[in-house]
Amino acid sequence: PKHLKNGTTDEYEVTIATLPKQNGWVNENLVKYHDTWFNSTTLKGVMLAQDHFVARPTDIFLATFPKCGTTWLKALAFTIVNRNRYDFSDHPLLTKNPQALFPFLEIFSLRDHENEDELEISSSPRLFSIHTPYPHLPESVRSWASACRIVYVVRDPKDVFVSSWYHMKKIRSKELPQLTIEECFKMFCEGVYQFGPYWDHVLGFWNASMQSLDKVLILTYEDLKKNPIDSAKKMAKHLGHPFSVDEEKNGIVEETVKLCSFDNLSNLEVNKTGVTKIASFRYYENHVFFRKGSVGDWQTHLTPEMVEKINEISKQKFRGTGFTA
Ligand code: A3P
């Protein structure tokens, strides 16, 4: 995607003001930019990153569509990469929500960078979360010449929808009219959801991984649940921090997985009662990032028609791409 190169913040706002708009789930500020729906403030961060962010060869990007396991992945990646800096008994995850450990690239790009140390991003390797679809990422992240690494987590869209529905109910402004599950389902299927459509998001990273297996590792939420040890090992290897034979023997992989598990994190005091500043414009209560943490919750929420509809979209969108989840 192209837009005003080296534009000022105001120029981004001018561009954004011309885009098609829709009411969203959490607020009413969704805009469509090159076939993707963005929250308008986040889109400014995406554009700023495209124009100004320069990836370092050591950078690590954790990419997810919202509700696919961002919080979990952030905890795992941070613990893996920094395992020589912190003991399990005195680990930052015991007192901070995973979302507070490092920033979203989209939001980081909107900030002045005075508080970099606070978010530990000046250390190497730098860790960033991204929800930005692959084609919208800064050139220096996508370039095959750049050695930076990406891990992408996919999740069954039926569970993504159910998770999004509950999340929306927790954080949607009370002043706005409530949305029914049917309304949200229709919007989700039409891609009207931040960073949507879900299917195009998956395909962007899938196609990139097919072009360069060294750069993009794809994991699934379902595999992470079924076999967290293997997934953690795969992730560590891909990120250039493989577990040694001794570490494996000494149970470090198990400790990592246990520290980051849903049961452990969701029961910590900080995640029951704490609050995290995700962006200068938004605070979240930490408990909103934890709900059930299971696979297949859609079975008790979706009607057979909804299941058929979403499965049919997946079939059509993924046909011929080689992607199977
Ligand atoms: P559910 O709503 O299905 O429970 P994200 O972090 O991308 O916003 O995704 C949130 C989803 O991941 C929620 O799913 C949440 O409960 C789940 N989750 C959060 N932390 C987790 C963890 N440590 N292990 C497994 N799932 C986790």
From TrEMBL:
Its EC number is 2.8.2.-. Residues 57-322 form the Sulfotransferase domain. Transmembrane segments: none annotated. Keywords: Transferase. Pfam families: Sulfotransfer_1. It is an enzyme of class 2 (transferase). InterPro entries: P-loop_NTPase, Sulfotransferase_dom. GO terms for molecular function: sulfotransferase activity. Belongs to the sulfotransferase 1 family. This is Sulfotransferase. It comes from Fraxinus pennsylvanica.
